[in-house]
Design a protein that fits this description.
signal; mainly alpha; Zinc resistance-associated protein; LTXXQ; single chain
Length: about 180
């Protein structure tokens, strides 16, 4: 390969990297996600995070209630389900705030212990959430269960596409509530 071609390719690669770095710095150095996405959550104050999580949860529950077209006799069960989910979200928000306020672990062992503790807490929370979902789910008709399943899968996602399968281009799926 001729020397001028190698030099041109190297210059193009360096220029592309410089443009990307400049854009990342202009965004405040947050290179881990799209602007306006979840990347900014780590920079939020705990009160802001709690408020944003609460608003998002309310929106999801309102959409779910509308999609299910609940009968009057199903409304009390939905309200209990909604209250359970709200209290779970508040506990999670408080846990996140406490974790942020705590001194970060200094050693690999301390980090692993902290991750293990968080895993146990999440597991317990998931068990409680499952019981709440099972109780509400039992009150639904077969058609409503189909709607609930589809809506519940979307609850963890932001948008319809996201990172699925091998990437956003292929339209595959990473699994329920992901992407």
């Amino acid at each position: 390969m001729k020397n001028w071609i190698k030099t041109s390719i190297a210059a193009a690669i360096i220029a592309t990297g410089a443009i990307g770095s400049t854009a990342a710095l202009a965004w405040g150095g947050h290179c881990d996600g799209p602007r306006g996405g979840k990347a900014g959550w780590s920079q939020m104050a705990p009160e802001q995070m709690k408020a944003k999580m609460a608003a998002r949860a309310e929106l999801h529950m309102a959409r779910l209630e509308l999609a299910l077209a609940l009968a009057p006799e199903q409304k009390p069960a939905f309200e209990r389900f909604k209250a359970d989910m709200k209290s779970r979200a508040e506990r999670m928000g408080s846990m996140m705030a406490e974790r942020r306020a705590a001194e970060p672990p200094k050693t690999a062992i301390e980090r692993m212990q902290r991750m293990e503790e968080m895993s146990k807490l999440r597991q317990a929370e998931m068990g409680e959430a499952r019981k709440s979902v099972e109780t509400f789910y039992a009150t639904l008709s077969d058609a409503q269960k189909t709607v609930f399943d589809a809506e519940f899968e979307k609850m963890g996602r932001k948008g319809e596409r996201g990172m699925k399968g091998g990437g956003p281009r292929d339209g595959g799926s990473m699994g329920p509530g992901r992407g």
